[in-house]
Amino acid sequence: MKTLPLAVPHMSEAEAEEVFGWILDGEASEEEIARFLLAMTERSETADEIAGAARALRARLIPVDAPANAIDCCGTGGDGHHTLNVSTAVSLVVAACGIPVAKHGNRAASSKSGAADTLEALGLDMEAAGRTAEKTLAELGICFLFAKNHHPAMGRIQPIRLRIGRRTIFNLMGPLSNPARVKRQLIGIARPAYVPIYAEAMAKLGTDHTMIVSGDEGLDELSLAGGNEVAVVEGNDFDMRRMDAEMAGLPHAPIEAIRGGDAVHNAAALKALLEGTPGPYRDAVLFNAAATLRVAGKTETLGDLAAMAGEAIDSGAAKGLLANWIEMAR
């Protein structure tokens, strides 16, 4: 068994890739991995460490074929706000706008309901969704890439994450290791001050166009409550920006207005959203969908893109897409 470098203040990208290779390959004990992850969380991970860890996870994933223009929209989780599943709803809405979405996700590790939990409560068979991922992505324009199916090395890590019960570097690694190898992403992280660090990690890995976002209150998506810290990463460089809901023609709302619950609760809210129910949840989805459409290459204003997303809901396209997905993934 390997001894993890708990005393090392920071690791280079190459060192992090090696150490996380040991972790993912089961060459360290569960107790030592837990101590190591908590120590990193306490001192905060560097861009080199995040990029190196992501490279280790990427090297061990089971890939899927995807259209060249496929995108992903996800949050790192671990923000402690327990909101409704915004990025899951955004994925359905954006796919209904004609953009292929390779949604990468998992069950809850530090929240009440992860993307997989909510989609399952809506009727999507997780095992079948994984088995038919390439087919549904090619024919419907959406798939769910369940992390456990594509990152077998994570099977031994998930119990450790559940025992820790708080955000670790694995929250940050997941969005950087999409099995469809997407080059365009909207990624929400839980710490606004950490946006440039995470953006630097993404820039080290390279991307066509990725937007890293964080609400000022520590929300791992674009927030309606106030301002948002945003990094736009293109190629191996990035720049910082500020965004708020008014830029998309949407009203502000407190986080409490989109507070979620367990998978059944969140699934019911998502179903109501797709049926056209107005309110802060819809507005949050439209805001994040507008940004995701921008990442996908749409050049209209954020307001126009939010309207495009709204039409995908009100026309029944997003609801119909989910029904077809559930039917195909059997």
UniProtKB/TrEMBL annotation:
Binding locations of anthranilate 2: 161
Domain Glycosyl transferase family 3 N-terminal: 11-60
Pathway: Amino-acid biosynthesis; L-tryptophan biosynthesis; L-tryptophan from chorismate: step 2/5
Ligand binding (5-phospho-alpha-D-ribose 1-diphosphate): 75, 78-79, 83, 85-88, 103-111, 115
Cellular component per GO, a single term: cytosol
Enzyme class per UniProt: transferase
UniProt: Mg(2+) 1 binding residues: 87, 221
Binding site for Mg(2+) 2: 220-221
Gene3D superfamilies, per database record: Nucleoside phosphorylase/phosphoribosyltransferase catalytic domain, Transferase, Pyrimidine Nucleoside Phosphorylase, Chain C
Swiss-Prot/TrEMBL catalytic activity: N-(5-phospho-beta-D-ribosyl)anthranilate + diphosphate = 5-phospho-alpha-D-ribose 1-diphosphate + anthranilate
GO biological process: L-tryptophan biosynthetic process
Molecular-function annotations in GO: anthranilate phosphoribosyltransferase activity; magnesium ion binding
Cofactor(s) required, per the database record: Mg(2+)
HAMAP family referenced in this protein's UniProt entry, alphabetically: TrpD
Family assignment from sequence similarity: Belongs to the anthranilate phosphoribosyltransferase family. In the C-terminal section; belongs to the anthranilate phosphoribosyltransferase family.
Entry protein name: Anthranilate phosphoribosyltransferase
